[in-house]
């Protein structure tokens, strides 16, 4: 059986690898998968307490902690996703406090230590030979708080070192400790020199203070940890939101026919439940009586509702849009389809192999090698010179110059710049892992509805009967369909409205489940629906049969309209392809990436859409479980990226190596994905992969320079070239270390100029049309007359006058998605004409047409999930 353990103390991929190795070595363990993001591991064993205790002991011996998580329903069992989210949020808050404290003391420490060399003004208490001890001891006191708040590096680093598995924390701890110890020794040397009247000796010692190096190491690494912790909390909300889809209550019918509202947890297999119009289906079951039209988009992803009648199955969490029916509960609780989707998401995120950070891989070899070199340098110089000071100077120089700043910054700086550049381009990268993995994608799997297509039906073809003009057909269509809530009907009404169709009086309107609608329009009996409905009322549609089959082959739905016993025409409705879909597929193909369309729609429609956009393969008729299975199968052939927008895509998004969600899709799809396309433009998929490739290239360059720097400088620091008079003391070593970090950061900043480079003609034509449209819009705006904000002529509505602006300081915004939420919340307040939100500044300016109270604006932002720190 598979059980979950919570793991403590992991900080990098080397840690998760060590925990996995330790657990796999326990007798009775059949399999283990460690998840660094969720600080947990899934272990397959017989479930015995003895093996669980052995696992905890083995992990503890490796330098970490492992605690068996209670199963759902047991006392102390956490709600799904609740624990990871809370842990990540708490960790982000803790790291933020550490970062603030570190900066507060590191900045004055750096100013004090470098001021005398840079000519910066310093207080007189730190100047002069008589104040050297004060100068040195003040730096030491400024360092202590930085060490105290970041003591975790020392605790974990030395603990893993003691267990023979040093990681990046070990390098951080050794480098900081070496600089600190050397500085403390220098303080004693200053005191000795001043006590014995040797001012030159004391002055030389005062120049050997490297407390600022120790503080800078800890502060810069903490900065990277803070950004990592902030990203963690956004990746584990999917399961909680999936659970919220299930109705909390159900209407249960008793043996005597009475109805009672009960919590859905009390529903048992065999219970008869009543589902009315507008209600969600509480569990999986079979319709016993009644009829309705059910929106199954939460499961299938398809926007067209499905008619249900006795004998048909219904799925929990779907919505009955119209009608009424009673069902027999067949699957409840953990057995429902939605519960299965939740498990798939959880398992996919738990079993996905943790990505080994390049720097951590190198550190696994680099750290022990550096330690050995430092020890060897100390021994050799003790033998050669017999001077402890000389030997210690070379050993510490090796450790200081090998400080992991450059190596540790190589990956996070490039990722930070890359993700920032992506955000400004509408590509939200939710994790560093996604940015690293996307460069190696071999196959891109795309959902159909809402991804390659608009997700909303629209009228594509109109066929009129002989002797009937389009205006008459449009008038009938608008009149008879205006009261229907069906998406296809709404598409017809929208088309008729745009055509200027006249509205006729309507009576006796009635929906026919699975067929269409009927009513009396202009005094005549009218019908609108499929061929089956027409046949039931004796309306002949044979004249449209050939054209209807052709349209159906193209993935379109033909709707027939009749009045007074005669068919007036046929209107075809379809989910239209997005303008950029074909260009995106062409661009992916040019990049050497295979494309697959994966959809729950029928084979005929899927083939038509697939052919129009040019995908390499079409897989149709698959439900969420099938999508996840297909992605897993394709993953065996190479890295896979899944692009989707619906709840039904969530398991596949989580299972894929890279999950890419369309920004206009459901929150669950967005939470399950690693990358979110804010503009809902499929052309951003190849752009995201290009960004990943550029970032990975930058990371490899950074690692190359960091390692070359160490390869060249470590031998010099160890004194290998001292025979030629070429050596390094710790001060020069620290300066060299700083230079290497500057080179790495400067190289990473080049990514700020990144732009997608589309090479195909189709993509370039799309970009050209966009540019032309923008230019036309700019010309139109420039030539438009200014509106009178006080009043207008001819009774035209006046533009509302802006009477004031209020600036809100908003905390909690982390991405452009957050910006959209805050903007929408404020603009939903009566009296707010526009809200301008600035992510970088953390502000929102509300432009008001009337005086709106501060607490009203605050409440709107708080309801959206953010905090207001002040209003100006």
Mind explaining what this structure looks like?
The structure is a single chain. α4 packs parallel to α8 and α6 (168-195) runs antiparallel to α7 (199-206). This protein has 30 helices and 28 strands. It has 872 residues and is α+β, with helices and mostly antiparallel strands. Helix content is 50%, strand content 20%.
Helices and strands in order:
Layout: E1 2-8, H1 13-24, E2 31-35, E3 40-44, H2 49-61, E4 65-68, H3 82-118, H4 132-149, H5 151-162, H6 168-195, H7 199-206, H8 211-232, H9 238-244, E5 249-253, E6 259-263, E7 272-275, E8 284-295, H10 297-300, E9 306-308, E10 313-314, E11 319-331, H11 337-351, H12 358-385, H13 388-401, H14 405-424, E12 427-429, H15 432-437, E13 441-447, H16 448-452, E14 453-464, H17 470-481, H18 487-498, E15 506-512, E16 516-521, E17 524-529, H19 531-536, H20 545-553, E18 557-563, E19 566-577, H21 581-590, E20 594-598, H22 603-613, E21 617-619, H23 624-635, E22 639-644, H24 650-655, E23 658-662, H25 667-672, E24 675-677, H26 684-717, H27 730-749, H28 761-783, E25 804-811, H29 816-827, E26 832-838, E27 843-848, H30 854-863, E28 867-871
Parallel strand pairs: 13-20, 13-22, 20-21, 22-23, 23-24
Antiparallel strand pairs: 1-3, 1-4, 2-3, 5-6, 5-7, 7-11, 8-9, 8-10, 8-11, 12-24, 14-19, 15-16, 16-17, 17-18, 18-19, 25-27, 25-28, 26-27
Helix pairs in contact: 3-4, 3-8, 4-6, 4-8, 5-6, 6-7, 6-8, 6-13, 8-14, 9-11, 12-13, 12-14, 13-26, 13-27, 14-26, 14-27, 17-18, 21-28, 26-27
């Amino acid at each position: 059986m598979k059980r979950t353990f919570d793991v403590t103390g992991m900080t990098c991929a080397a840690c998760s690898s060590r925990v996995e190795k330790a657990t796999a070595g326990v007798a009775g363990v059949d399999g283990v998968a460690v998840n660094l993001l969720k600080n947990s591991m899934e272990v397959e064993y017989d479930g015995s307490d003895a093996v669980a205790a052995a696992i905890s002991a083995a992990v503890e011996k490796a330098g970490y902690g492992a605690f068996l998580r209670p199963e759902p329903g047991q006392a102390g069992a956490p709600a799904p996703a609740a624990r990871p989210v809370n842990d990540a949020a708490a960790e982000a808050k803790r790291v933020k406090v550490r970062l603030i404290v570190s900066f507060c003391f590191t900045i004055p420490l750096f100013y004090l230590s470098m001021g005398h060399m840079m000519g910066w003004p310093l207080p007189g208490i730190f100047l002069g030979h008589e104040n050297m001890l004060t100068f040195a001891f003040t730096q030491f006191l400024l360092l202590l708080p930085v060490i105290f708040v970041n003591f975790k590096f020392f605790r974990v680093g030395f603990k893993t070192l003691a267990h023979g598995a040093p990681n990046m924390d070990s390098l951080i701890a050794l480098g900081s400790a070496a600089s600190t110890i050397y500085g403390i020794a220098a303080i004693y040397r200053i005191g000795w020199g001043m006590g014995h009247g040797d001012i030159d000796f004391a002055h030389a010692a005062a120049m050997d203070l490297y407390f600022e190096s120790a503080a800078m190491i800890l502060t810069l690494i903490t900065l990277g940890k803070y950004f990592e912790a902030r990203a963690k909390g956004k990746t584990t909300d999917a399961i909680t939101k999936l659970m919220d889809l299930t109705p909390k209550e159900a209407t249960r019918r008793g043996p005597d026919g009475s109805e009672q509202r009960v919590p859905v947890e009390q529903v048992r297999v065999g219970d008869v439940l009543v589902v009315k119009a507008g209600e969600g289906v509480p569990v999986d079951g079979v319709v016993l009586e009644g009829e309705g039209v059910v929106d199954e988009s939460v499961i299938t992803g398809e926007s067209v509702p499905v008619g249900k009648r006795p004998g048909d199955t219904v799925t929990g969490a779907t919505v009955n849009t119209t009608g009424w029916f009673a069902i027999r509960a067949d699957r409840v609780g953990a057995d429902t389809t939605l519960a299965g989707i939740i498990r798939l998401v959880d398992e996919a995120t738990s079993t996905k192999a943790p990505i080994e950070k390049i720097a951590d891989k190198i550190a696994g070899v680099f750290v022990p090698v550096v330690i050995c070199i430092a020890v060897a340098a100390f021994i050799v110089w003790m033998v050669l010179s017999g001077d402890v000071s000389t030997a210690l100077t070379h050993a510490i120089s090796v450790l200081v110059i090998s400080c992991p700043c450059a190596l540790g910054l190589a990956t996070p700086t490039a990722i930070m710049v890359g993700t920032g550049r992506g955000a400004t381009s509408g590509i939200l990268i939710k994790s560093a892992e996604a940015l690293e993995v996307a460069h190696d994608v071999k196959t891109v799997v795309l959902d159909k509805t809402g991804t390659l297509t608009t997700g909303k039906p629209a009228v594509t073809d109109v066929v009129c009967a002989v002797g009937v003009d389009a205006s008459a057909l449009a008038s009938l269509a608008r009149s008879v369909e205006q009261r229907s809530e069906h998406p296809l009907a709404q598409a017809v009404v929208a088309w008729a409205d745009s055509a200027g169709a006249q509205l006729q009086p309507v009576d006796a309107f009635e929906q026919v489940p699975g067929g269409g609608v009927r009513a009396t329009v202009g005094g005549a009996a009218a019908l609108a629906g499929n061929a089956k409905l027409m046949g039931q009322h004796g309306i002949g549609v044979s004249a449209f049969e050939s054209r209807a089959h052709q349209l159906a082959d193209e993935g379109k739905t033909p709707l027939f309209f009749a009045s007074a016993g005669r068919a007036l025409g046929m209107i075809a409705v379809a989910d239209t392809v997005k303008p950029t879909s074909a260009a995106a597929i062409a661009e992916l193909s040019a990049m050497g990436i295979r494309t697959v369309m994966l959809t729950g729609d029928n084979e005929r429609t899927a083939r038509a859409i697939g052919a129009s956009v040019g995908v390499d393969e079409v897989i149709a008729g698959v439900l969420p479980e099938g999508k996840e299975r297909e992605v897993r199968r394709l993953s065996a052939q190479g890295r896979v990226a899944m692009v989707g927008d619906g709840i039904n895509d969530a398991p596949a998004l989580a299972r894929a190596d890279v999950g890419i969600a369309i920004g206009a899709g459901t929150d669950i799809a967005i939470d399950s994905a690693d990358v979110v396309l804010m503009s809902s433009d499929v052309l951003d998929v190849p752009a995201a992969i290009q960004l990943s490739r550029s970032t990975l290239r930058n990371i490899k360059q950074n690692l190359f320079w960091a390692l070359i720097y160490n390869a060249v400088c470590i031998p010099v620091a160890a004194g290998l070239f001292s025979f030629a008079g070429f050596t390094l003391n710790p001060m020069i070593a620290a300066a060299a270390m700083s230079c290497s970090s500057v080179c790495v950061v400067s190289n990473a900043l080049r990514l700020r100029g990144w732009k997608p480079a589309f090479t195909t003609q189709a993509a370039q034509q799309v970009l050209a049309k966009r540019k032309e449209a923008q230019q036309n819009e700019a010309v139109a705006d420039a030539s438009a007359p200014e509106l009178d904000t006080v009043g207008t002529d001819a009774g035209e509505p006046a533009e509302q006058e802006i009477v004031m602006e209020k600036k809100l300081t908003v905390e909690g915004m982390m991405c452009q998605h957050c910006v959209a939420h805050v903007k929408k919340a404020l603009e939903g307040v009566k009296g707010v004409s526009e809200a301008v939100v600035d992510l970088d500044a953390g502000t929102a300016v509300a432009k008001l047409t009337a005086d709106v109270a501060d607490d009203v604006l605050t409440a709107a932002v708080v309801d959206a999930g953010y905090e207001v720190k002040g209003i100006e």
